[in-house]
Amino acid sequence: MEWAKTQHRLADVLDDHGQYSEAADILRSVVTVRQKALGPEHPATLGSRNNLAIALYAQGKHAEAEQEHRAVLALRERVLGPENPDPLSSRNNLANALRAQGKHAEAEQEHRAVLALRERVLGAEHPDTLGSRNNLASALAAQGKHAEAEQELRAVQAIRERVLGPEHPDVFRSGFNLALVLIEQAKLEEALAFARRAERGWQKVLGADHPDSKDARTLREQIEPAIQKQKPGQQ
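Structure (tokenized):
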């Protein structure tokens, strides 16, 4: 059990550094050990399965992640109840996996349900509640509801910056997602400002080689030439 606990923590560190494949390999072994020693319904076993599903999602294995999240959600709801933070986390992660597969309406429905429960159970400014609002905005944007998504993300950005501080990675996540929504509405100058802030922030907090930092850099590099083309005399 000490080995499993240590390996689970190691997988968390690898995930934080964007080494998702390595994290998944470790978590598979941890799940096997914890299932045998603790049982399939023990919170520690389910916690490792949840993190494994997150690592699968980060690798683009969205269907496999959905399957794992559904299984963990069913067990967590039965053991802990539907309003416990752990089942709500699984339900939120399931909604993300659905959105990644283009099941946008179903994802929006799930995110709205989780958001309502988190607001009641955890409060409107809890980080998990704000995460649900952020994810709901992504589901809205995926359906072309860009103005509604922008409104949601601006609110999340303001609260996160006040509650978590201006250099928290979640603040940069909100700004990055807001930049994506602004691009769709041709608000390129403001989108560039948010993309640059996310790039600088993530590089400082996570390192230049982290996937989030690279995504922000790629987005910034896409926006800059588009702005140049909009300027008078540019073709």
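The mean pLDDT is 94. Residues 211-230 form the longest helix (20 residues).
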